[in-house]
Amino acid sequence: MRIGISCYSTFGGSGVVATEVGKALAARGHEVHILSPSMPPRLTGFENRIYFHEVTASSYPLFEAAPFSIALASKMADVASHHGLEVMHAHYAIPHAMAALLARMALDGKLKVVTTLHGTDITVVGADPSYLPMVKLALRESDAVTSVSQYLKDETIRTFGMGEHIEVIPNFVEPPTLDHPECRAWLAPDQAFVLTHISNFRPVKRVMDVVKIFERVRKEVPTRLVMVGDGPDRAEAENYCRERGFEDEVRFTGKQLDIGTVLACSDLFILPSATESFGLAALEAMAHRVPVIASCVGGIPEVIRHGVDGFLEPVGDVDAMALDAIRLLKDKDLRRKFGESARKRAETTFAEDPIIDLYEALYERVLSTPKSSVEISANPR
């Protein structure tokens, strides 16, 4: 098959998943074309059958901002026409699915559109009244729609009153090969443990909860904290560490491509988010045998089993999360048991091959259905 994949070029889960899906499909012999504003972080190296197309929106005097959605739709149509794409897989309803539907119209219906919902396109953007009609249109007119968790499917139905047709295809992870990185020695001198957090440091990630958890843990167990990522809440977290006098025990790394090395030298992963549609960073930690302490919200309980792979606590319960961390760090056998359970779950329930099988089957199914309509219906089916 010849498949287009449209995604954001961010370090977030949607860009990671979209890129990894594309790489896995290319490895199976499919021709994959990735469209994004810039090179996605995970699209590194030179690989056969995978192509990147940069989407740029030209400035136009009439508009205050360059019309990216139109530029994306035009690029989709051009790439699909020139390379004979059969499917355009849009990651996020806005703007990617809407752009794909426009491209399909420009190509007289000769392009199938598959949309994957990742979270904020439903829980934030989709719930905004100004965008709600367009998200509903994308859900209705896509040839197939998937979501990364049952929680997100249920939330879509609750928010839009539609979405029963959505197929849940979870995120996946490839088992890592790195187990004993050299960075452990300088990240955690004097036999200290390593707590890790990875996110975009937005308010929903509750970054301040992470440093407050660490503040409690460090009083009981020699520990270091590694904060990977960047965003609006980083400055507040850094200032808090300085004011409390433990800034030398916390390493703010900024955005990192080599997430595997960081996780390979971690003892616990902390994810106290206000909401998560899935929690891909937690799954990547589990693949490295790292137990996770997280909020019991959204799609996280579909990934992490409380008392088996880690601990789940109510949002904002910093004390409970700190106690969980102290318990695991002090109990080597329990920490190892949780880590092995987490690794097994990542290798089985969220293994790459079975999930790519689901995407391949989905593409084949939509390609076997009648030609997409050129007209976008004004009424729900």
Task: Explain how this protein is built.
With 381 residues, the chain is α/β, with parallel strands linked by helices. It folds into 2 domains: 2-172 and 352-367, Rossmann fold (3-Layer(aba) Sandwich), CATH 3.40.50; 184-348, 3-Layer(aba) Sandwich (Rossmann fold). The protein contains 15 helices and 13 strands. The strands form 2 sheets. It has a 7-stranded parallel beta sheet with strand order 3-2-1-4-5-6-7, with helices on both faces. It has a 6-stranded parallel beta sheet with strand order 10-9-8-11-12-13, sandwiched between helices. Helix 9 links the parallel strand 9 (223-228) and strand 10. The longest helix has 17 residues, at 332-348. It is elongated.
What keywords describe this structure?
single chain; 381 residues; alpha/beta; Rossmann fold; 2 domains; 7-stranded parallel beta sheet; 6-stranded parallel beta sheet; 15 helices; 13 strands; disordered C terminus
Layout of helices and strands:
Blueprint: E1 2-6, H1 13-27, E2 31-36, E3 50-54, H2 68-83, E4 87-91, H3 93-106, E5 112-117, H4 120-123, H5 132-141, E6 144-147, H6 150-160, E7 167-168, H7 184-187, E8 193-198, H8 207-217, E9 223-228, H9 234-243, E10 250-254, H10 259-264, E11 268-271, H11 280-287, E12 292-295, H12 300-303, E13 310-313, H13 318-330, H14 332-348, H15 352-367
Parallel strand pairs: 1-2, 1-4, 2-3, 4-5, 5-6, 6-7, 8-9, 8-11, 9-10, 11-12, 12-13
Helix pairs in contact: 2-3, 3-5, 8-13, 11-14
